[in-house]
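Thread: quick sanity check before group meeting

JM: Hey all, I'm pulling together slides for Thursday and realized we never actually wrote out the predicted structure for the chain we discussed last week. Dropping the sequence here so it's in one place. If anyone has concerns about the input, flag it before I start.
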Amino acid sequence: MEWLKKLNFKETEKWHPWFVENQIAGYSMRYGSNILFATIKGAGHVPSDYLPFEAFVAYQRCIDGATSL
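JM (edit): ok, ran it. Output follows.
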């Protein structure tokens, strides 16, 4: 997150939770040039090992071109 701030991209979407099955799955924010910074709550360095369903949903939403997680 710090290095994104140093790139001076304009924040286009504030820090907010994103949901999977009505539960907070993580948090995300969007910057200019369509850069998305997202977390998966409770996941370690390999989210697909810790929370495979949430990681799949995040990946699928990005592939599908969702404007927000």
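AS: nice. The mean pLDDT is 91. Residues 52-63 form the longest helix (12 residues).
JM: adding both to the slides.
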